Amino acid sequence: MSEIMVRERFLRSGKKVYEYSFEMASVDGKRKRKSKSGFASKRDARIAGRKALSEYENVGQVMVDRDISYADFLDLWMENDCKLTCKESTLYGYEKKIRLYLKPELGGYRVSSIDKKILQTFITDLYNDGFSINTIISIKGLLTKSFNYALENHYIMTSPANRLVIPQNMQPDKPTRRKEHIYLTKDNIDSLFERFPKGTSSFVPLQIAYHTGMRPGEVFGLVWDDIDFDNKVINVNRQIQWRQVKRSKKDIKKTNGTSESLGYWYFTSPKYKSYRVIDIDDVLVSILKEEYEKQKRDEEYYGEFYKKYYSEFQLLFSVQKNKEKEIPLNEVSTKETDFGVDFVCRREDGSYVTSRTLQNVSNAVHKELDIPGYDTYSLRHTHGTMLIENGADMVYVQRRLGHKNINVTMNIYTNHLTPIIKSRNNITLNNMY
C-alpha cells in the first residue's frame, strides 16, 4: 500500500492549510500522485488521506471528504478553480464577499448539509438588511458557482443553489442601500478643473474621463499608440490594475513593519472585454496633442533620467479583431524588455501617474469643493448623462461606455432628470398637442 504524505500549504489569503498525497498507479511508465488540500490540521489531512487511499486501493476510485466545512471548501474552490480562470480584480471581489458575507453566515456548515432553505433564508435576510440588489445578485452568483463546483467534484449529489429567488415584491425591513450615481453640473466641472488645472498630475486623466466616459483603469492604461489624432479616436485596448503580493515576515521585518506593500501594475483586458473605438471631440484632441508634445520635450530635457517603463509581453492593438491573442496578465515595470510602454498619464520626469491619484482628487473634492458623493466614476456618469441630454441614442451611449448590455445603460442614465433633459422633453410634450 502507498504511504500517505502530509505537508503544509498556504492559500492566497495567507491561511495555512494541510494537504495529503499518495502515489497512484503509473500511466505510460510515469508516476502519478493524488493530492487534496484545505485541511485545518495535519491530523485531519492524514485521516482524510487514509480514507481516500483505502477507497482507491479497494475500488480504484478516490472519494472526496463530504464532511468538509463550507468555509474550508470555499478556500479550496478559490485555490483550485477560481485562480485558474478569473482575473485578479475578479478574485479580489470574490475574496472580499466570501470573507464578509459567506464565511460568517454559512462557513460553519458542512457542504453536504447545506440545503436550499438555508441559502434562500440567507438571500432573503440580505434583502431585508438593506443590501443592494446588485450586491445580492453578486453573492447569489458566488453561491451558484461554488456549489456547481461541489456538484461536479462529488461533494454533493444535487446543488442547493439552484433557482434561488431574490425578493422583489416585498418591503425590506431596512431601506435598501444605494450608492447614487453622481451627475456633475457645469459649475461642479468648472470648480474641479480650477482645483486641478493644466500642469497638475490629475489634469490629463480627469479630462480624458470627462470627455470620453472611459473607466479609470482604461484611462490609466492608455499609451500614445492607442490615440489616433488623424481620425480623432481612442482605441480602448486594455485596462491597468494593481496586483497586491502578500509580504513575507522577512519583508515586513526589513521595512520595520511599515505599510510598504509588494505588488505591481499589470495590463489586462477591459471589463467585460469591452474593446472599442471611441470618437473624441476637438477640445480633448487639443489637450492630448499639447500633452504629447510636452512629454517629448520633457524626455529630451531629462535624457537618461527620464523614467521609462516596459511590459513583460508585447502590447496588443486593435484587440477587438484578434481576441484570441489576449494576454490575461501583462506585468509593467521599469525592468527593461523589448516592449516599451509609452504611458499617456505621466509626470514631467516621465514617472507614471497611477489611478491612486484619483483618491487624492476625491478627498479634495469632498473637503474643498463640497461635492458629496463624488467618486472616481462620477466623470464617467456625467459624460453618459451629457450624451443623453444632447440627444444621443442609447445604443451609442452603451457602446461608447462599454456596457455589457443596454439595460445597464438605461438603468443608470434614465435616472438623471437634469434641467436640460426636462426642458427638451417639455418641448416635445408641447409639440405633441
Keywords:
433 residues; alpha+beta; 5-stranded antiparallel sheet; 15 helices; 44% helix; globular
Helix content: 40-55%
Task: Note the beta-strand portion.
Answer: 5-15%
Overall structural class, as computed from helix and strand content, comes to alpha+beta
Tally of helical runs: 15
- The H/E string reads EEEHHHHHHHHEEEHEEHEEEHHHHH
Form type: globular
- Residue stretches low in confidence (pLDDT < 50, at least 5 long) are none
Query: Main β-sheet: number of strands, strand sense, barrel status?
Result: 5 strands, antiparallel
Mean pLDDT: 86
The radius of gyration is 26 Å
- Number of DSSP strands? 11
Q: What is the rounded distance between the termini?
A: 90 Å
**Spatial strand arrangement across the major sheet:** 6-7-10-9-11
